[in-house]
Automatic annotation (TrEMBL):
Gene3D superfamilies: MmpS1-5, C-terminal soluble domain. InterPro entries: MmpS_C. PROSITE patterns: PROKAR_LIPOPROTEIN (PS51257). This is MmpS family membrane protein.
Amino acid sequence: MKNRLAPLALVAAGILALTGCGDPEAEARESASQQAEMRAALEASAPRTVLVEVEPVRTYDFYERLGDKPTATVSVNTSEGTEQADVNLPMIDNQADPGATYSLARGEVLSMSAQIEEGAAGILCRISVDGTVLVEKTSTGRYSVVSCAATIE
């Protein structure tokens, strides 16, 4: 009876060794790998902070002397809809921070356009995600229009 179980025990030991059962290091590596995959999936689905900025190009001296700011009409389009406003340039939010921020998911598209109304020789638009500029464009000339669009990644 002893001799018959010996080959069976060897086969069982081989299977355990090949599958990693009972090997704490292999189980820890697999668990760490699964945790890393879950973190990556969560990060990929998390909304991104998108900054939209509009600035004047070459402000006219007489506007600066009078204390006036250049103005523009700005339209921003997201999956939530379109916002349009007449703003002083450079555009700032309610807390006096540059631009306007949006929270968008990866794969969403943000597009915008801006037209200089008065006070500058042109206009610039910029779209950034987490401090990285995705697109920046400039248009010059009286009443010039600039457009920017980006897919959030």
